[in-house]
Amino acid sequence: MTTEYTNYIDGEWVASESGETFDVTNPANSDEVVSRHPSSTEADVQTAIDAAVAAQDEWGDTPGPSRGAILREAGELLAARKEEATETLVREEGKTRSEAGGEVQRAIDIFYYYAEKCRDLGGTVKSPSGTDKELYTKREPLGTVALITPWNYPIAIPAWKLAPALAAGNSVVLKPASQAPNSARILLEVLDEAGLPDGAANLVTGSGSTIGTPLAESEDIDGLSFTGSTAVGTAVARAASEDLTRVQCEMGGKNPTVVMPSADIEEAADIISVGAFGTTGQSCTATSRAIVHEDVYDEFVDAIVEAAESLSVGPGLDDPGMGPHVSDGELSSTLEYVDIATSEGATLETGGGKPAGDEYEGGYYVEPTVFSDVSNDMRIAQEEVFGPVLAVIPATDFDDALDTANETDYGLSASIITQDLTEADRFVNEIEAGVAKVNEKTTGLELHVPFGGYKDSSTNTYREQGDAGLDFFTSVKTVYRNF
Ligand code: NAP
Question: Residue 390: which pLDDT band, with cuts at 50, 70 and 90?
């Protein structure tokens, strides 16, 4: 019996006025329907926006420590439900139990972090031009904000938008991805139980084009924070900007790791394996290009093939090395990129297909895949595959590697593996990416530092997370006081 969930609007759990629903299935076993959610309409979205607008003044006027107490309590309630939230996440998105548990813990930590920030929203005092005067800035809530989130981090990303938005005193309408909306539902449940006032946060599920578009176009929305693909984000940013709504879009990536001859190649392969195949390659920061100095190219290819082939693939609940793709569509897209890469002349070193065996029949499984002999102008090196597919590209020297790393429309995360300080410094300074790492994988973020991309990976308006997460959700007022 499939559990049917509802929207959360104005403090009530309510069905869509359409009466229609959609099913979410288990990526490890597509016959298993794991939850059912409302196919909401534009009218549902407007009801949620109206509730949020009505609630905003009271929530914005709630003292920071009281807002913080609610966020902290929500974090504690989520911690108490960590096991359940982890299983929910695995069942709808497919990632491994370890990956999902880490993600739920991240959501908990985000609530704790922004609970403290409620006491300290910032502001600066400056010296005025004249005596008997004061000159300072204060931060005020932006107002009512819309949050549109993707399926690949279905609890962490809603949390890293919801928590700073609420911490700053905004009211919120959240539209989670249709492929994995059930994890976000748990966040609204814990906020409700923690005592969040009715209407301060609302959840509406349904198709992006039906309910995301009216959210982006609404004149009642003061800020729109979107994470998803560059194609959808670009359209959303245009729609929201039409009436000068503040907008932030964090989007796709084509993230490189450069490997230089001074690197320990076994270690480099281990780092890149986690970056490329972790979360089934379905991270915006996933390593999709290894740009390897020609002196260590063959050695690296052997090592990364060995790492890929050592990964077990299976249902996320069994906690294998790698879970399935989230959907048939994502699986088909990855298999199509394998064909494209092969036809463009890349060499398939390992993987490239569905794993053999009856146990893989019902799920969206694919093997960890490595291509060598990739040139940077091939589609496999330029387009976001969003699957466990690594393109290994040769480089003649550091400058060639850096140029190759930068020759992409994206600029989200990038790393270099080297023991040479000059190379590390030049990489950090010259790489065109919002996240630059040395001797690290491109994936994995800390929650208290800014996160966002360069180039087509971001609207580059505001960063997320840390203090930067609060900047988007607040307006700065400059106060001149003359006594
Ligand atoms: P997506 O297809 O762009 O969808 C993202 C969200 O937008 C979903 O909630 C979707 O709803 C909604 N949406 C779809 N069409 C819309 C429209 N016309 N108007 C308004 N909203 C609309 O992305 P995804 O497939 O969920 O996620 C994968 C992408 O996200 C990848 O490109 C990945 O790189 C990127 N990503 C980026 C970051 C980052 O921080 N840079 C983090 C994670 C993921 P439906 O689900 O109902 O279609």
Answer: very high
Ligand 1 atom nearest residue 458's Cα: 41
Among the listed residues 6, 2, 34, the one whose alpha carbon sits nearest the alpha carbon of residue 19: 6
Pick the catalytic residue: 52, 284, 402, 414?
Answer: 284
| Mean per-residue pLDDT, 110-131 | 95
Q: Which amino acid is at 229?
A: S
Taking the C-alpha atoms of residue 387 and residue 368, their distance in angstroms, rounded to an integer, is 9
Mean of all residue pLDDT scores within the chain? 98
Check if 224 has its Cβ closer than 6 Å to any atom of ligand 1: no
* Amino acid identity at 65: P
Polymer length of the chain: 483
Residue 192 carries which side chain, given as an amino acid letter?
D
pLDDT over threshold 90, residue 57: yes
For residue 122, the model assigns a pLDDT of: 85
Helices (H) and strands (E) in the chain, counts: 15, 21
pLDDT at 169 over 80: yes
**Does ligand 1 have an atom closer than 6 angstroms to the CB of 434?**
no
**What is the Cα–Cα distance from 437 to 443, expressed in whole angstroms?**
10
How far apart CA 98 and CA 378 sit, in angstroms, is: 34
Residues 6 or more apart from 156 whose CB is under 8 A from it? 103, 106, 107, 110
Strands lying side by side in the sheet with 255-259: 347-350, 369-372, 389-395, 287-293, 255-259, 413-417, 435-438
pTM for the predicted model, two decimal places: 0.98
Q: Show the domains of the chain with their CATH numbers.
A: 7-251+459-482 (3.40.605.10), 255-438 (3.40.309.10)
Q: Is 118 a catalytic residue?
A: no
Nearest protein CA to atom 20 of ligand 1, as residue: 212
Residue to substitute in 21, 232, 328, 455 for testing ligand 1 pocket (most ligand atoms within 8 angstroms of CB): 232
> Is residue 179 within 8 Å of residue 152, measured between CB atoms?
no
What tokens does 449 get? 């530092």
Q: Does residue 247 have its Cβ closer than 6 Å to ligand 1?
A: no
Instruction: Give the model's confidence band at 58: pLDDT under 50 very low, under 70 low, under 90 confident, else very high.
Output: very high
